Amino acid sequence: MGISVTARLARAEDVDVLIGLYRKLEAEMVAIHPMWPRADGLDEPVEQSFLAHMDNPSARVYLGEVNGYPFGFIYARTETLLAHEGDTGVVSIRLVFVEQDARGVGLGEIMRDTLMDDFRELGHHLFDAHVLPGHRLAKNFFEAGGFSARSIVMHHNDRPDGGRRIGATYRTIQRT
Asked: For 5-144, which CATH superfamily applies?
């Protein structure tokens, strides 16, 4: 008996699962670079961010499942190119995460390819993926899917804490 590896659009009732997966991604990314939650992650409160992305027709959040159990997610949105390119958009894969126990079974590939096929059906043919410097696993994952680097963002931080302290505060949402 084989395993079933699938990706499906996330729904509002998946938000708690997505938050749990996101917090694991956040822990991995902060270990690589402390700026990640300040510049590359989701706005807090994360629940509200996920719900807004699910309601945005220019964004997609997919949940990846192995045998029906959620082990990962991927989030992308369309971004407009420069004005002289007209309405041409590039799909920007902002976040992808697969839990350690589900890595190596093709879940990331299924999520990435399903998401890209979805956007292709909408007429998109340009795709970017955001990867932190030094995150060799993510770089290799996207290169295996045909991606190559087109830009590198350099960063310098003068703060004595190296950017580890996040000064933002937010309110939690009460769900009824």
From this structure: Gcn5-related N-acetyltransferase (GNAT) (3.40.630.30)
